[in-house]
Design brief:
It is a single chain. The protein is mainly alpha-helical. The protein has one domain. The chain is elongated.
Length: 72
Protein backbone atom coordinates (compact mmCIF):
# COMPACT_ATOMS: atom_id res chain seq x y z
CA UNK A 1 0.00 0.00 0.00
CA UNK A 2 1.43 3.33 -1.02
CA UNK A 3 1.52 6.47 1.09
CA UNK A 4 -1.22 8.03 -1.05
CA UNK A 5 -3.47 5.03 -0.42
CA UNK A 6 -2.89 5.24 3.32
CA UNK A 7 -3.60 8.95 3.30
CA UNK A 8 -6.82 8.43 1.34
CA UNK A 9 -7.89 5.63 3.71
CA UNK A 10 -7.23 7.76 6.79
CA UNK A 11 -9.13 10.69 5.32
CA UNK A 12 -12.05 8.42 4.55
CA UNK A 13 -12.03 7.18 8.14
CA UNK A 14 -12.01 10.76 9.39
CA UNK A 15 -15.04 11.64 7.27
CA UNK A 16 -16.86 8.51 8.48
CA UNK A 17 -15.94 9.38 12.07
CA UNK A 18 -17.35 12.89 11.68
CA UNK A 19 -20.60 11.43 10.35
CA UNK A 20 -20.73 8.94 13.20
CA UNK A 21 -20.14 11.66 15.81
CA UNK A 22 -22.84 13.84 14.24
CA UNK A 23 -25.28 10.94 14.24
CA UNK A 24 -24.54 10.30 17.90
CA UNK A 25 -25.14 13.95 18.66
CA UNK A 26 -28.49 13.85 16.89
CA UNK A 27 -29.53 10.76 18.83
CA UNK A 28 -28.47 12.42 22.07
CA UNK A 29 -30.50 15.49 21.13
CA UNK A 30 -33.53 13.30 20.47
CA UNK A 31 -33.13 11.63 23.85
CA UNK A 32 -32.81 14.96 25.63
CA UNK A 33 -35.80 16.45 23.82
CA UNK A 34 -37.92 13.32 24.25
CA UNK A 35 -37.33 12.93 27.98
CA UNK A 36 -37.40 16.59 28.88
CA UNK A 37 -39.76 18.02 31.43
CA UNK A 38 -39.00 21.69 30.97
CA UNK A 39 -39.02 23.88 27.91
CA UNK A 40 -35.34 24.70 28.32
CA UNK A 41 -34.35 21.05 28.00
CA UNK A 42 -36.56 20.65 24.95
CA UNK A 43 -34.89 23.66 23.33
CA UNK A 44 -31.47 22.29 24.23
CA UNK A 45 -32.31 18.97 22.59
CA UNK A 46 -33.65 20.72 19.50
CA UNK A 47 -30.55 22.88 19.24
CA UNK A 48 -28.35 19.81 19.54
CA UNK A 49 -30.32 18.07 16.79
CA UNK A 50 -30.01 21.06 14.47
CA UNK A 51 -26.30 21.44 15.15
CA UNK A 52 -25.73 17.74 14.48
CA UNK A 53 -27.67 17.86 11.21
CA UNK A 54 -25.66 20.89 10.14
CA UNK A 55 -22.47 19.05 11.05
CA UNK A 56 -23.56 16.04 8.98
CA UNK A 57 -24.28 18.20 5.96
CA UNK A 58 -21.36 20.65 5.98
CA UNK A 59 -18.26 19.20 7.63
CA UNK A 60 -17.68 16.09 5.44
CA UNK A 61 -18.25 18.09 2.27
CA UNK A 62 -15.83 20.80 3.36
CA UNK A 63 -13.20 18.22 4.34
CA UNK A 64 -13.55 16.50 0.96
CA UNK A 65 -13.26 19.83 -0.81
CA UNK A 66 -10.15 20.70 1.19
CA UNK A 67 -8.53 17.35 0.48
CA UNK A 68 -9.51 17.21 -3.18
CA UNK A 69 -6.70 16.32 -5.54
CA UNK A 70 -5.56 19.48 -7.30
CA UNK A 71 -6.02 19.52 -11.04
CA UNK A 72 -2.72 19.81 -12.90
Amino acid sequence: MTDEDRLARNRYYIICGVNLAATGGAVLGLLIAGRSVTTEHTLLGGALILASLYMMAVVPRSLARRWKTPTP
